[in-house]
Amino acid sequence: MRKIALAVTLTVTLALAMVGCANPQDKKTEQKGDPVKITYIHRLPDGEGMTKVADIVKRWNDANPGIQVTATKFDGKAQALAVKLETDIKANAGPCLAQLSYNEIPEMYVKGLLQDVTAEAKKYQKNYGGAFGQMTLAGKTTGLPQDSGPLVYLYDAKEFKALDIKVPTTLDEFKAAAAKAAAKGKYIAAFTPDETAYWLSAQTAAAGGVWYKTEGDKWKVNLDSLEAQKVAKFWQDMIDAKSVLTLDRWSDAYTKAIADGRLIGNLSAAWETGFALDGLDGTPREGQWRVAQIPDFGAGAKTGPDGGSGVAVMKGCAHPAEAMKFNDWFNTQVDDLATQGLVPAAVQPAKTPAKMARQFGGQDVRAVLAQANKNLSQDFIYIPGFSAVVPKTTETAAKVAAGNGKVADVFAAAKTSSFQALKSLGLPAI
Amino acid sequence: MSAVRTAPPPAFAPSKFARSLTLIVLVVAMVYFMGPVIWLIIASSKSTADLLTTPPFAFSQLNWVANWQALMSWTGGQFPRWVINSVIYSSLAGVVGTMISLACGFAIAKYQFPGRKALLMITMTGLLMPVALLTVPLYVLFQTIGLANTPWAVIVPSLVSPFGLFLGRVYAEASVPTELLEAARVDGAGEVRIFFTIVLRLLGPAMLTIFLFIFVATWNNILLPLMMISSDNLKPVTLGLYGMASYYAPNKGAMMLGALLGVLPLVALFLALQRHWRAGLAAGAVKG
Question: B52 and A54: CB-CB below 8 Å?
């Protein structure tokens, strides 16, 4: 009995000691005149040579004593952050602002984790391009866009010249150029299975069709459209002709194909300009690449969004108006955000950072990207549960890349898994 | 082990075949275990571009200084602090966790009390639970009691180790004679004194094994600090490096250098404790 008593005493003492050490600030009640406190959790890289988020936030805090912002960097991937946010918000300890990928916004909103700040957002809408639409769901805006990823075309200008091909402006020209380059062992594009969900949905949007939209209070899944079929055929033709490489975008093989000069172009998200050519630094190929608009997919000068993220206001944030004020200021610091490798969603053009100018032979990359931002499809949204669509799509695309299937199967897989995802969230779909 | 080595008589000597087979197996094992370490050392000296284009097991341009600068820049100068954090968390969890494991293991092995078997069974099912599964519930718990984002949030969950308890029980059963405990009681020693002055000494080798086990488990745990810790200055080194890796284009050379410097404390610890550890394992085996 004595032993048990001793153990109990020890445990209780230890527990009490630990509670004593807990952060006392949490319990402090707010008083009038105290500055409003805003917490902001982000996933920006904060790497070498970048303007650190903490420094940008410090500028705001120095200039705005009434609204003090604490920025925290989350080290994990987007999915881990989603779990943490959900837990925190349910425990009423969530941050005010959080960086979320556009494809997460609908799901978080449906789960009731985001605040509707439409009225506040309206005040700032004029500062942002097409990506504003991705923060808006059925007329309800939950925050402001931070960066956007319109598809652009990256290519090695010197190799293009040597092969006597021009940057293709239509899909037929693209196929012809790909065939011509492939005959010499060079590839002007790669089919990248691990990126297909975002990549093909963006291309469909560039062709003038969107995978998803809301119709009344239902989700419309539209993966059999003529536009989708056109994109599928475009890639199928090139895969059949063996005029494109098939390799995963996020593999070392991709970086290596660029480094050894086999891959001399690809349809890429705008944010890839921040790092896609890092492997060429200090090699003879440095500075040969350029960026251009994607070819006309049939809808004129239009492109689709591949990735990007925004800063949303979380449920439980006590000061949404102040949070949005900071949100707008932060996301219009375009030059600072550009150093983080982002393509800011704000309309105000950013300076092309020195590293980017060097990698693209002095081209004004930001001007091209700003144009792509303007061409961005306005009505593109993801469905809640899109995170479940991605792996199915990737899996099917990997089979296609291995020669077991058609690109059309990827769209079919995306369709099936989209309906499943919506069903499992209890959302009506047609 | 005797200092003078004599060759065994021919009849007992292993055959040439057995000897060369042993040698081959050992060499393969060495390559298998040392290969990644050597690769890490070489990789930490390269720039990201060199990592992709030069042969993996050959040095190219030595880029250590630039990698170190990049590492410090990516981590906002916090890298050394993160290593120290890891050492503190793992040591504290290791020392206290070992005590808890041994005390519980000893109690279950040597004391008769109702519910002993049930208690052991429940603990053992804990062995089957993947740590990842428990992380989110733990986070909710720590969030509620206000301990999230404190060092305790990483240390306290690491203190309890079902495997440590299991080892403690096995060792206590094997190397603590009940007669010795009875003799001590007859001499008037209390239970606490018996545990600290007699039992712990007998369990010395087990102590080291459990300590290293908990230390390494705490050091390598990444999901727990990822959920629990949000302040930069509280992060352990694993989490900090993971933060560098979760972007599309990390500076791979700098990360490799970080990984190398991040395991040095572990290597030092193992080298320092290796002798004792082997002595411990052998003691159990020979005495029988």
Answer: no
Among residues 155-174 of chain B, which lie with CB inside 8 Å of chain A? Answer: 156
Q: Does B106 touch chain A (CB under 8 A)?
A: no
pLDDT interval class at A202 (50, 70, 90): very high
* Domain limits for position B33: 16-70
**A255:B52 CB<8 A:** yes
Closest to A52 (Cβ–Cβ): which among B76, B156, B240? B76
Q: What is the pTM of this model?
A: 0.79
Long-range contacts: A107-113, Cβ < 8 Å, 24+? A107/A384, A107/A385, A107/A386, A107/A387, A107/A425, A108/A82, A108/A142, A108/A312, A109/A137, A109/A140, A109/A142, A109/A384, A110/A384, A110/A425, A110/A427, A111/A86, A112/A315, A113/A85, A113/A86, A113/A89, A113/A314, A113/A315
Mean pLDDT of A285-313: 92
User: What percentage of residues in chain B have a pLDDT greater than 90?
Assistant: 26
Full residue range of the structural domain in which residue A403 is found: 149-306+363-424
pLDDT band at A113 (very low <50, low <70, confident <90, very high): very high
Residue with tokens 């060759």: B7
Task: State the ipTM, two decimals.
Answer: 0.74
Instruction: Check if the beta carbon of residue A21 is closer than 8 Å to that of residue B152.
Output: yes
Question: Across all residues in chain A, what is the average pLDDT?
Answer: 87
Q: Are residues B148 and B56 in the same domain?
A: no
B134-157 average pLDDT score: 89
In a domain, B288, yes or no: no
Alpha helices in chain B (DSSP H): 16-43, 48-53, 64-74, 79-110, 116-128, 131-144, 151-159, 162-175, 178-186, 191-193, 200-202, 204-220, 223-228, 237-245, 252-287
- Both B163 and B66 in one domain: the answer is no
Chain B, 185 to 224: residues with Cβ < 8 Å from chain A are 191-192
Q: Which residues contact B126 (CB under 8 A, 6 or more apart)?
A: B162
Q: How far is B265 from chain A (nearest CA, A)?
A: 23
| Number of structural domains found in chain B | 2
How many A-B residue pairs are in contact by the CB < 8 A criterion? 110
How confident is the model at residue A20, as a pLDDT? Answer: 39
Nearest CA in chain B to A252: B52
Q: How confident is the model at residue A28 (pLDDT cuts 50, 70, 90)?
A: very low
Q: How deeply is A27 buried, as exposed, middle or buried, from its count of CB atoms within 10 A (0-12, 13-18, 19+)? A: exposed
More reliable by pLDDT, B234 or A379: B234
Inter-chain touch B248–A275, beta carbons under 8 Å: yes
Residue B179 scores a pLDDT above 60: yes
